[in-house]
């Protein structure tokens, strides 16, 4: 399986996927850290993360797959939501919590 197929499989297999620098426990950049905190605050129950620092192929090719140049990248139900700024805006508007309540149930 090539790297593009591997990334698409991750996106298809998990309802919430965050491609980030580091891990939720040990984020390696401020944007990744803020995004994880926003997801937790919005009630994300099942958060699957991919550490792009551990896989240079993913780090190099995900921007081609998603047409999004920076990390982190959040996907919900197979759709690119965006990066840190968009995630924070969705959290502040209440939209992120609504998305999780609809996709994950109570």
Automatic annotation (TrEMBL):
Organism: Cognatilysobacter lacus
GO MF annotation list: 2 iron, 2 sulfur cluster binding; disulfide oxidoreductase activity; metal ion binding
Keywords: 2Fe-2S, Iron, Iron-sulfur, Metal-binding, Redox-active center
Record protein name field: Glutaredoxin
Residues that hold [2Fe-2S] cluster according to the record: 29
Family from the record: Belongs to the glutaredoxin family. Monothiol subfamily.
Residues of the Glutaredoxin domain: 16-81
Residues the entry annotates as binding glutathione: 21, 59, 71, 84-85
